[in-house]
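Quick one:
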Amino acid sequence: MSSQVEDEQQQQQQQHSFQELKNKWAQQASKQTPVIEQPKPVTHAPPPIPPKPSPDSLLKAHDEEEKRVSLLAQQFEKQQISTSANGNFSTQTDKPVLRNIQQEPAPNSIVKQPEATSNEDHCNDIDDSEDSEDSSDDDQNTVVDQEFDNNLVEQVQKTHLQYTKLEESRFTENLAPGVRKQHGRPAPPPPAKKVQKRQPPPPPPPSQKYHNAVRTQVLEANIPSSPNTTQADIPKTSTINTTTSMGPPSIPSSPPTLPPPSLPPRPSHAVHATTIPQLPPRPSLSTLAKAHTITSGMMKSVTSNVMGRPLHTSPPPMSHSSSNEDSVLNRSKSASTVNRNVLIKAAEVPKDAPVCPDLTQASRNPPLYNHEKKVILTGHKGSLFALAACRYMIFTGSHLLRTWDINSGTVLNTIGDANPNQTNENEKVHAITVAPCGNPIDEGRYVWVAKQDTGIYIVDTLANPPVYGKKMEGHNSPVSFLLRFRNSEIWSIDESGILNVWEIDDASPLRPPLPKKYLVSKNAVAATIANSLLWMSSGRTIAVHSILSPNDPVIPSIRLPNDLGNITALITIPYHQDCVFASHEYGKISKWDVKTVKKIQVITVSMYGICTMVSVGEHYVWAGYNTGMIYIYDTRPENWAVVKSWKAHTGSVNHLVVDDSGLILGEKSGRMQVVSGDSNGCVSIWDGLLTEHWREHHFLKRESEYCTYEDNNLMICSWNIDANKPEKLIEDDEMIREWLGGMQDPNIIVVGIQEIIDLESKKQTARTLFSTRKKGDTAETEEGLTRRYKLWHDYLVRIIGDNYGHDKYTVIKTDQMVGLFSCIFVRTIDRPRIFNIDSTLVKTGLKVMNKSIHGNKGGIAIRMVYDHSSLCFVNCHLAAGQSHFQQRNSDAEGILHNASFPENGEYEDVFSHGGDGTMIMDHEFCFLSGDLNYRVDMTRNAVLQKLSEPDKKRAWKELQEKDQLLRQHITNPLFKLLMFHEAPIRFDPTYKYDPGTDYYDRSEKKRVPAWCDRVLFKGKNIESLYYTRYEIRASDHRPIASGLRFKTKVIDSDRRYDLGVKIHHEWEEHLGQFVQDKKARYLADYERCSLKEAFTLLESSNWNILDAVAKLPKPKNGAIF
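Output:
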């Protein structure tokens, strides 16, 4: 009973407190709202009273209400929401109103936020879909986040304006020669002076790659008339009315404090999930093959500065002022300092950067004899198992042993079972070597052959018919290697690890005495002799055996690290004494010390596996790859230099042998030949002396003796216009004129435009991609594209005409591909100096069966011959996506490799590195520009914080350390685009802006700012005059421009011919010294005299090797040793 009473009392207390709370709320409302007399309302029936709530539900609702009010109060205090004195919201609005408390930041104040813990792979947190490269770092969908992002973007723009305003006054009066100083709108051009038209240069001399020293007639220089090339005139278009100034607004002395217009927040119902980190795409085999076969190189600049290092070192201050009345293009102080200060200085190579060869001097010309490639189809079934060469003969072994005549390419004899329907595995040839002879005239007569049946056979090639000799017993397993040790022994090694050392007896060459046996490593895949030590490898290990000194301590075998890959070959190089070199299947070459058996160095030479390797001459290494390529390396520099690289075979190059016996014997047709064999059974013969390369190299070094040079200025302008039309650029007219007029009277103006149409338009993509549409639709699409190209062509002609004069420049070439458009202007007075103009297109967009069928991405390449120098201009648009740098690399190398021009005839010194002008890299000067799309591997907030710092140079340096293109120097040093140079980047990232504003992307995707737009160049003695961006707001990219100076040459044919005669005599002298050294080493290999005594004997014998060998002391017991 008492419990019921207590419950009733508790309910009454709760009702009383609830009634008091209602009265209090009513009083507060009456105080806040003025009393207004209202007409007496019409009475209606009262609504039904809801059921009385229970005490428990009231308590629970009261607690939740208090908690919600407390949380709201905390949030309102943080956001500084204006409230009335009594705590209610203002009656002027029914929504919270944010106070406008934004104040002018201090000069050095920077909006800070905790930096990311790692900046290496932020692309893993980013959407990789096309053109959705950078998702927002902050996925919090609140007004506070939006405000912070807007403030950070605004701070970046303020810092940019402050820096450019500060820097522009420093260089107003110090512009480099050839750079135009502009004040607002360009002044009208001065009256044209009477300029005498210069005559076009004489055509380049025809190719005479092998000069005849006894030629008596001097080549007469024919000076033909100007090439009959169609000259495009500038269309006569009306100029813009100059009475209405469209100048840009002036920049206030202090940055504006108003916040940028904020974009609408994301929908509140959006679900933010953490994305799974994605690895970068793995390149396909076809992509990697393209990368390997692009082998033409660039001429290294003779300046003391090295371009393109990933780090910059304290460059002199340069900037581009923002658009105002006194805007100028800030350049270096004088032409004499341009080459010294503007280029990026060489930075110290990072510790993690691999050692790689220098590709800049590589020639894609194969080392042929008399311009003739010799290929022998051996007819063996499948791959060759063994290969040897001596004098005029080549020996190939598969299941048959065949001897070939090098000069005629015919088979001399075949030994073995010639039944085509049967294959005897015991007849399989494992190894071949040419045995040494007591009389050098017999060199190549006796050939040792090891077969599958564990036997070794000696073949007398002069016998009629030649047959296998008697089987020599000594091994119980098949022999893997036959090594010739000097002119005294042959070492045979079998699979079970038995080494037999056979001493050569000149008295019985077909029946040598019994061998000495040693136990060595089993299952060797590579072996060589270095300083009487036998180096062997089973692929994963290296073992060294002391054969001639068995009492020496045993050297334990060394296991290789996994990153090197299996060893495929072991060699020694005369230039590097006491060293052994090993090639690996992962495209690396390791260097080892013979005495300590320690690894000295690892050189990354390729991304492909090396199948075989051989030392040629004193310092050259020839390497054969599984792609059919052969590379020649000069091993004298610390970073090896690639001398030549060419596609030698269709299959993998499995064998490389060198033969210098013809030179040593002094035969008329004697030569040092390198023979290569592939997996398809084909054999090719190459010039091991590199005669042509030697002569071309010396012509290049002495080019100034027969050439005259002239400076030329080049202006390259590039812009991703985001599908804008010229009529939409009225507000940016002043800056566009500055962009297209940044240099004073350049010889050539190159304009490259990307995204001339909307590449994101699915309708437009479908029209240009699918061929199943109707013929009328096709014509309509092509007509629309042509109209868009014509609009931009006319617009560029008009602007450049207004800047420089309407008769000053002539359009010599235009080309287009979907979103790309290229237009080249030259000075009208220089038009007769230009000939052989061609263009080509390369698509890298949508691929089907590894073939690009869509040109939404790709490149336009335009080439010309200017005087006697070849120029090529590439306008490209590479793959988008924050993490798609590997696809961009593939696109760039695909453009460089697949662009094909018509052959331009055989000319000397017009094209570089053995090229004939059919490829981009054949040209003496190459310029590549456009939207390369390389990004910065940092978070968006980290990039914005860096850009908001007042020390711009430091910020740019730190950001460029994460630039994907510059990072390739470390991660992918064999990337062919690194053969190009780039001037220092001293401007803010050009991507991505909100169109029409000065603020970086504030959309939902919030892309990371990056230097997507670049200008690269390759050539000799190219000077950078300026490299900057322009504040044109119409697109989401800022346009860029680069001013460059280069020298074109004119060749004097008579003087070149005279120099050719001198070089020919120098070659004969060089060859004579090389042959003498070879003869002395051959004589010392008989081990009956020292090398010094060998030179003395040869001098007394008038360098006749036969007489010198006859004067050697006789060996005991008739043996050579």
